[in-house]
Design a protein that fits this description.
By secondary structure, this protein is α/β, with parallel strands linked by helices. The chain has 19 helices and 22 strands. β4, α6 and β5 form a beta-alpha-beta unit. The longest helix has 20 residues.
């Protein structure tokens, strides 16, 4: 007869775990319960360091992430999800405020890796490879590294000094970044000769045209180049928005076509330049790929929305303006995206504006980087014809990589994947990016121990103060509120030394005299072998966070029992 013993066994939280049974947790693999517990304890610096173990851009993700973690949060089934994104910002800003930087690793492998593209995927792969001891050089075409985060995300979301800090943090790990260094297909053979591995992470920056007559007229701009012109301008750096608006000459009335994050960033940027903006989208508000909160904020800033509108023609109008002809639509059957397809109704209407800016998506830039004859696929690795050298791909440059092109947190996860594959290719060592653990789903949490508590309302600058400047719109939570909101977390699957097991243990459990630590397999109690009885199983059932388990005293569990029993 097999005897079962209680042990401490940490689990993964759904918010931290992606692609498990259809769960959509954090693609960057952030250790969310442990960084939140650190904030709740008041140790903001520890929370910062926990985040930096997985995410070099926690300051950015704490501001503009589409936070799939909150959709996966167990608390959502109880009342409302935890403010994970806002709390990530609080932790990240602790390091920024204190000027915390890492030291280069002592380990050196003697291997050199080149990374083409200094966006979130490329810089993340460089960050992890440098920490593993490889020499890493990043080639960035722009004058500053950061990629789409730097020139595609407006300053009112991601301030320049925060972006500068996060890039410098990566450099302090030993990564060398060469800016104004555009790589062409003819450069690839040389880079392969000089390095032991090459990562291409140039993103999806090639804007799609809307496909109607007139979409190539001079006054029809694309979203990403417009944002780049604004975000990298010398005028915005010195705060001269009037001069910026005059130089760009975007006009007074602007039509934005699209319904994703880029469309919203374009529209809200144009408002700050003094424009009157209308967004046209071929589907309905509920089908927009941007977060619903984006619509509310845009409406507060005076942006109008016209839904179920398909652009059919753009032509010159009087006084240098442009006339757009739209066809009204209705919704039909779902298409390949799962959303209801817009069906033309035959009813037309027109709008006249000074400028048309389209933002309906971007394509991979990979064909612009790799030589002819090298396949550009969704694979993570490309083998050159007739050669043993392999090029690794990271981020949105991989065609078909993600339906959510442009989502920074997914690019970060892809950068981690690329770094792990390159490291294995160079050393033979396989890395475990996310430990194989059971998931502490909602059904395993003892919610009877918790009370309903509302989320925080994020502080924002008044709407009337947003025009004519690019001040950060959403402000950080005060530290006392951050601690309170972190305390809403169930801390699913991790031990926080709450003593429930100790109280239920009937003298069979002893406390270890050690402080709490964020180590994956840390345990803070021991079982007294001769006192463990069938009643001790009540301690396992009592754990609010599902951090205990009954296991047999054999096989893979024998080591854990030997360590945890005295």
């Amino acid at each position: 007869m097999t005897t079962y013993y209680p042990i401490y066994y940490t689990r993964r939280s759904p918010c931290s775990t992606r692609d498990h049974l259809g769960n959509g947790g954090c693609p960057a693999r952030n250790d969310i319960p442990r960084f939140l517990f650190s904030i709740w304890k008041g140790d903001f610096e520890l929370a910062f360091r926990i985040l930096k173990r997985t995410n070099p851009f926690s300051g950015g993700c704490g501001r503009f992430c589409d936070h799939p973690c909150e959709k996966a949060c167990n608390r959502e089934k109880f009342d409302e999800p935890v403010d994970i994104m806002a709390l990530e910002r609080v932790a990240a800003d602790e390091g920024f405020r204190k000027g915390i930087f890492p030291s280069p690793p002592e380990r050196r492998t003697g291997k050199r890796v080149y990374v083409v593209g200094g966006g979130p995927a490329g810089l993340t792969s460089a960050y992890f490879l440098a920490r593993l001891g490889h020499e890493v050089v990043v080639f960035e075409a722009e004058k500053k590294a950061g990629g789409l985060m730097r020139f595609g995300i407006p300053r009112y979301r991601y301030p320049e000094d925060v972006a500068d800090y996060e890039v410098e943090y990566i450099e302090k790990t030993g990564v060398r970044i060469e800016t104004n260094a555009r790589i062409y297909p003819g450069d690839i053979p040389r880079l392969l000769e000089e390095s032991d591995a090459l990562i291409v992470a140039t993103g999806a920056l090639k804007g799609k045209r809307i496909g109607c007559p007139g979409d190539d007229l001079p006054g029809v701009w694309q979203g990403v180049p417009f944002l780049r012109d604004v975000n990298l301008s010398p005028e915005i750096s010195r705060g001269d928005i009037e001069a910026l608006s005059e130089r760009i000459s975007v006009g007074k009335e602007v039509a934005v076509i699209g319904g994703g994050y880029t469309a919203f960033d374009v529209a809200r940027t144009a408002v700050r330049l003094g424009c009157s903006v209308t967004v046209y989208y071929r589907r309905t508000e509920s089908q927009m790929t941007a977060h619903p909160g984006e619509v509310r904020e845009a409406e507060k800033e005076g942006i109008r929305f016209v839904f179920l509108s398909i652009p059919r023609k753009i032509e010159h109008a009087e006084n240098g303006r442009y006339r757009i002809t739209f066809e009204k639509a209705r919704l039909g059957e779902p298409d390949e995206s799962g959303r209801e397809r817009p069906i033309p109704t035959g009813e037309l209407f027109t709008a006249e504006v000074d400028r048309v800016i389209t933002a309906i998506g971007e394509d991979s830039t990979l064909p612009e980087v790799l030589p002819e004859g090298v396949p550009s696929t969704a694979e993570e690795m490309v083998t050159f014809p007739g050669g043993k050298k392999r090029v690794f791909l990271a981020g949105d440059v991989r065609k078909g990589f993600s339906p959510n092109v442009g989502m920074v947190v997914r690019a970060i996860g892809s950068g981690q994947d690329a770094a792990a594959k390159v490291h294995e290719y160079l050393t033979g060592e396989r890395l475990s990016l996310l430990p194989e653990k059971e998931i502490a789903f909602y059904e395993t949490i003892k919610v009877r121990y918790f009370e309903e508590r509302a989320r925080a309302r994020l502080p924002k600058i008044p709407v009337e103060e947003r025009r004519g400047n690019f001040r950060e719109t959403v402000l950080s939570l005060p530290r006392d509120v951050a601690r309170e909101m972190a305390g809403r977390c169930f801390f699913c699957g991790i031990c926080i030394q709450c003593d429930w097991c100790y109280d239920y243990g009937r003298g069979a459990i002893a406390k270890r005299e050690i402080p709490w630590s964020p180590d994956e397999d840390a345990f803070f109690y021991r079982f007294i072998r001769e006192r463990v009885t069938a009643k001790t199983e009540e301690a396992v059932e009592a754990c609010p966070r599902c951090t205990m388990k009954m296991v047999p005293d054999k096989g893979e569990w024998k080591k854990a029992i030997d360590e945890q029993y005295i």
